[in-house]
Amino acid sequence: MADNGHVTTPRKYLVDSETPLYYHITSKCVQRAWLLGRDHKTGINYDHRRDWLVRRLESITPAFAVTVQTYAIMSNHFHMVVYYDPLAANSWPDEEVARRWYIAHPSQLDDPTDPQSRAEAIELLAGDAQRVRYCRQQLGSLSAFMKCLKQPIAERANKESNTEGHYWAKRFYSGAILSEDALLMVMAYVDLNPVRARITDHLKGCKHTGLERQIRASEVSKEALDAYLQPCVGGLERQRPTLQVRLRDYLNFLRELLALEKREIDVTTQPPKPTTASLTREERWRSGKQALRRNPRAIGSRREISDWAASRGFASREVPLPTVRS
Per 3-state DSSP, what percentage of the chain is helix, strand, and coil (rounded to 5)? Predict the structure, then answer.
């Protein structure tokens, strides 16, 4: 498919249909309205809806071919860093597909609280080849995961507000993350969202984020600090790659970037080019943030982006991401 740089790129060209990858996902409330926080026009506070979204994320993600590495729920949008394996669902036995289906859709059970009723429903579904085929396709789809995550939140919010209409902007953003250095940059960008939004100026103040969960884990167990970074929640625990970064090192990395954020760099000025060899770490962080704000289709080095674009017949227009990790 030719890419002219203007027409919205179809999702099938952005999300690899065969290769597992990490992705940066962003979804906005319709018209960027403050539907997940305090509405500055009406004064109504919808902060509790962030808890809705976190609980929904925790409940349905184990059903899908997705692992959520981190996330940040803001007042009018949310971010996630996910690992998605497009072929994982193909290897699940029929009974596993049925079990996962009812994790994602418990309302389809006669009695979601009754183990016997659930077991009978799973057995019945697993014996229906046509239904299993449909469920497998849905559970292995990133777009279906996003729909399952967001639609009930929209319905619940509209009911609470006694209104109708769209709650989320129609299309969510997805950017392929092509290396571990790029992954750490994107994770830090997501986890420090509340700092950039001037909601807090310290790591423990980053509420409704994956960082909050990581800090909680570090306070419960010293062993967790020396373990490799774990995802927040997911359905691919045994199939995902291990991120070769320990929690202690990641938290120290974020503290260093937090110190840079506190300098309140003027982000309206033109950042230095990321290919400049003499960039300071502060300049590389600033340049990387500028690149991510553009919602790139792919995130990585110049070579990685060039190869990714060439494999899809695209022109390589993304700005390479500088390395921020020391």
Answer: 50, 10, 40
Q: Please, which residues bridge with residue 24 across strands?
A: 81, 175
Residue in 26, 130, 128, 22 with CA at minimum distance from that of residue 79? 26
0.85 cut: is pTM over it? yes
Q: What single letter denotes the amino acid at residue 271?
A: P
Closest residue by Cα to residue 211 from 253, 244, 262: 253
What is the pLDDT at residue 281? 81
| Angle of CA points 144, 147, 151, to nearest 5° | 155
Whether residue 90 contacts residue 65, with contact meaning beta carbons closer than 8 Å, is answered with no
Please give the pLDDT value at position 90.
Answer: 96
Residue 37 CA to residue 43 CA, distance in Å, equals 10
H-state helical runs in 169-313:
180-191, 193-196, 210-220, 222-226, 247-261, 281-293, 302-311
pLDDT per position as a tens digit, 277-299: 566 888 888 889 999 999 999 99
CA distance 175 to 293: 11
Please report, for the chain, how many H helices and E strands are present, in that order.
Answer: 13, 6
Band of pLDDT at residue 269, cut at 50, 70 and 90: very low
CA angle 165, 168, 101 (to 5 degrees): 100
Q: Average model confidence (pLDDT) for the chain? A: 89
Measure the CA–CA gap between 240 and 232, rounded to whole angstroms. 13
What pLDDT was estimated at residue 4?
40
Q: What is the pLDDT of residues 156-185, one digit of tens each?
A: 999 998 888 889 988 999 999 999 999 999
User: Residue 72 has which token pair?
Assistant: 């940040």
Convert 147-156 to b/e letters by CB count within 10 Å (16 or more is b): ebbbeebbee
For the record, the structure tokens of 185 come out as: 């940059």
Q: How many CB atoms within 10 Å of residue 137?
A: 13
**Cα(229)–Cα(246) distance, integer angstroms:** 5
Question: How far is residue 263's CA from residue 283's CA, in Å, rounded to a whole number?
Answer: 12
How many Cα atoms sit within 13 Å of 38 on the Cβ side? 3
